[in-house]
Amino acid sequence: MEHPEIEYDVINHLLFHKSLIDEQNNTEKINYYENMLRKIREGEHITIEDPFDKSIALAFELVIQQHLNPWDIDLVKFSTMYMKKAREEKIDLITAGRIIYMAWKVLKLQSDDLLLIMKTQQQEEEEYTSFNWDDLPVSEMWLTENDPYSYTNLLMKTPEPPLDVPVRRENKRKVTLIELLDAFNQAKKEAEEYQLIEQQRREERERLTQLARKRMKGTTVEDHLEKDIATVWEKIKKFPKKTMSLLDLCEKKEREEIIKVLISILFLAYDNKIIVYQKRFPYGKIFIKNIGYS
Amino acid sequence: MSTKEEKRIIESILFSASKPVSINEIKETTGLNTKKIKKTLEELIEDYNVKRKNETSMEIIKAGDKYTMQLKKQYTDKTIMITQPEIEKHLLKTLTLIAFHQPLKQSNLRRMIGTKAYEHVDQLASMKLIHTKKHGTTEMLTTTKLFPEYFGIDATDPEEIKNFLMKKTIEKTKQQR
Amino acid sequence: MSTKEEKRIIESILFSASKPVSINEIKETTGLNTKKIKKTLEELIEDYNVKRKNETSMEIIKAGDKYTMQLKKQYTDKTIMITQPEIEKHLLKTLTLIAFHQPLKQSNLRRMIGTKAYEHVDQLASMKLIHTKKHGTTEMLTTTKLFPEYFGIDATDPEEIKNFLMKKTIEKTKQQR
To answer: Does the interface ipTM go beyond 0.85?
Structure first.
């Protein structure tokens, strides 16, 4: 409550779950818990009557009060604290146990291996040996199907990715004559097709630019644009490399500046001074190649 | 043609292909029928991975729908100086996330790993390991057929891939302890 | 006698290097001493080429000062179509256009195939298959001496190469009918 950053984390955590779940039903539940979290912030958790919900509220409260990172909860520590708090708040222990079970399902992979570690650690803490993991109900509850989250969490914490790149032989042979001729045939065909498409594109570009220039004629926009284009062209010419990215040409990395530079480079590309290309549409970086660079 | 000779021919194909090969590719090259090829591949797998297990550093495995000869895991680190560089660890993790959650929205991947998601998606798509498909304002990400082939995973459908990754991750976690 | 593990490590290097490796390279990767490496290589040669002669399609041979694992001659023809060619298909297409139209301005190549022309020219030049020479604001592209050598074309001057490509293509088209 007093720690806004952690609260934000908890909300984020819930939103993350929401984004992974497509079923209407589960989203509704998460919305409900989100709402509950807001109520806890406003000190309203006392009004929750359903023991199950109250138990959940308690879990949230604990995370917030103890400054736990919801992305990285030490489950043994958490369950110890939680069971203690549940006793204090007089929440029925079966419900509380279900919550812990659920949390365990959510946060860790359901592997015998991990369960074993939990058990051993649990036994070391004598105080809570009475709490038996095997007695927990294996009923279907919200988020129990949410192993994707626990997997993501585990993977992010594992330094080594699970995929190994195998070593295979890098065998290469020379190109056969038939392949060479095939390639020649195809290249001729493709080049002809490409030229046809380019021609159509050029005509369409020409038409659009004429139209745009006509519209801007005599306006202040035109003056600015000419000036901007000149400035950007100077920058490209002075750039120490033949190829640069759009951002290399922007002084400030602000939206307005980027748009200004982008429009200028589009005109320069139209004038055949540079080539503009993007590695992947629509989020890939935009690159500029100075044709006359030597 | 004797069975021994067929075995040698299929072995030589696996050795020289540099990438996993399909039964159809073997068929086209050798003219043998599918049944015979399958039988011979099984025998080769048995030879390399069981009978001669301790007398070779190579293994023959099923990768996706294809077959390949590759180094056994325990020898890959030892030859690393001689062979090509690996894919960056972070990129492998991102790929794992996509493979595990597939179909995964790019916007969700962004929530998981931040803005580097875009760059990673670009790289993985250009390596042909993932597909991207427009989905409203975001992209839907899935792994390609190349994915299991590339990593030598004997699984083709998303559910099997998921299980494989789950198992592998747990193994790796164990190793670190 | 070298240990089993040493043998497997050196075998794995020969397998994955895909090209002849020197004793020094093996030394750098494994940390084993020269004598041990030589001994192990001899044993591996004995294993592959004598003891297990009929049970493998591979052989280990000494090539100059280096060692390599390769297919036995009788199996190489059978695997030719499955092995990857050194030059990628799309790069090969660009190369044939240059060979046919040479001397070809880079700006014209760009008109034929789009912006990928620049990347391809860079790659082909680094493979020493084409020359680039400044010509005003663009580059002039020609094939190198390596080009006919690489493809086993009995022609050296551009006109001959052009004719060769033309003639062969026509022949092939006829065959397909």
So the answer is: no
Whether the Cβ atoms of residue C68 and residue C19 lie closer than 8 Å to each other: yes
Cβ atoms A49, A18 nearer than 8 A = no
Are C7 and C43 in contact, with CB atoms under 8 Å apart?
A: yes
Contact in structure between C74 and C81 (CB atoms under 8 Å): no
Structure token pair of residue C72: 């036995």
Query: Using an 8 Å Cβ cutoff, are A183 and C96 in contact?
Result: yes
Residues sharing a CB contact under 8 Å with residue C85, sequence separation 6 or more, in sequence order: A172, A173, A174, A175, A176, A179, C92
How far is C41 from chain B, CA to nearest CA, in Å? 14
The Cα C79–Cα C48 span in angstroms is 20
- Name every chain B residue with its beta carbon within 8 A of the beta carbon of C81: 28-29
Contacts of B2 (CB under 8 A, 6+ apart): none
Tell me the DSSP string of B40-91: HHHHHHHIIIIITGGG-SEEEEEETTEEEEEE-HHHHGGGTTTSPPPPPHHH
**Interchain CB distance below 8 Å, A173 and C100:** no
Cross-strand partners of C50: none
Average pLDDT per consecutive 10 residues, chain A (294 residues; last block may be shorter): 50 55 55 68 58 69 68 65 73 64 48 40 40 37 45 76 80 77 85 87 85 72 77 89 87 82 86 82 80 70
Strand order in the sheet with A243-245: A243-245, A286-290, A274-278
B95/B116 Cα distance (integer angstroms): 12
